[in-house]
């Protein structure tokens, strides 16, 4: 991006898409992710004058924070849109392996022509519990990858070698650990969804990620503050992911089933209900 260029940024979303665009002196244009659209951006709603000037589009499916998933049909629409408007697509696919109930998350690059318009970013943080080690990789358009390499060479010094060796072992080794971890997350998911529904929360089944996106009444900041003060439970206010995240909170499946059940019991005892 050059100063003044437009980036198409989902909202709600991982904040770095928006912030990174601002740091590049770009102008982020929000693509609302709404429940009625299954938390997919409505490409037809993007004004033609914005689309013509846009240089980048950020996508992330399976999605943080909403846990939404995208189909190959949607990715085909994205490729067509990118071709029509000469836009580079950056698909953040950090949660590709964190799936449940037989669901397999498609790659954006599964679509014919995707390599001509985009790249896909991956992270070992989620798949292999290497959070904080900051190791990942990008695949896709050769020229864009080369450009990314030039930038990376000049903005950091690379990952510590032992972290790289660990990443190689993770990728080349048995993937049983991934399947086992997904089963753990599935058990946590089932416990949290069941408990929240008993308390009256309208939560949908999720097929991927380790996030539960929960609609709440009123301010998400107020709700998370109340939840913390009354029950000692920490959740993330949806507005922290963008203005269209207001009215939701995000739970993460990072605690054992027993701890999740304890949290539900606390909410019940302190009369934290919805519905």
Short description:
This protein has helices at residues 16-23, 48-53, 72-85, 114-117, 124-127, 142-155, 161-172, 176-198, 220-231, 257-269; strands at 6-11, 27-32, 54-59, 88-92, 118-123, 136-140, 211-215, 236-237, 248-252. The chain is an alpha/beta fold. It folds into two domains: 6-172, Type I PLP-dependent aspartate aminotransferase-like (Major domain) (Aspartate Aminotransferase, domain 2, 3-Layer(aba) Sandwich), CATH 3.40.640.10; 176-269, Alpha-Beta Complex (Aspartate Aminotransferase, domain 1), CATH 3.90.1150.
CATH class (first level) name of the largest domain:
Alpha Beta
What's the helical proportion of residues?
A: 40-55%
Task: Outline the low-pLDDT stretches.
Answer: none
The value of Rg in angstroms is 20 Å
Could you name the CATH topology of the largest domain?
A: Aspartate Aminotransferase, domain 2
Largest sheet: 6 strands, mixed
CATH architect. name of the largest domain: 3-Layer(aba) Sandwich
Spatial separation of the terminal alpha carbons: 46 Å
Individual helix count: 10
Walk me through the structure.
This protein has 275 residues and is of the alpha/beta class. The chain folds into 2 domains: 6-172, 3-Layer(aba) Sandwich (Aspartate Aminotransferase, domain 2), CATH 3.40.640; 176-269, Aspartate Aminotransferase, domain 1 (Alpha-Beta Complex). It has 10 helices and 9 strands. It has helices at residues 16-23, 48-53, 72-85, 114-117, 124-127, 142-155, 161-172, 176-198, 220-231, 257-269, and strands at 6-11, 27-32, 54-59, 88-92, 118-123, 136-140, 211-215, 236-237, 248-252. A 6-stranded mixed β-sheet has the order 2-1-3-4-5-6, with helices on both faces. It has a 3-stranded antiparallel β-sheet with strand order 7-9-8, covered by helices on one side. The radius of gyration is 20 Å and the shape is globular. The termini are far apart.
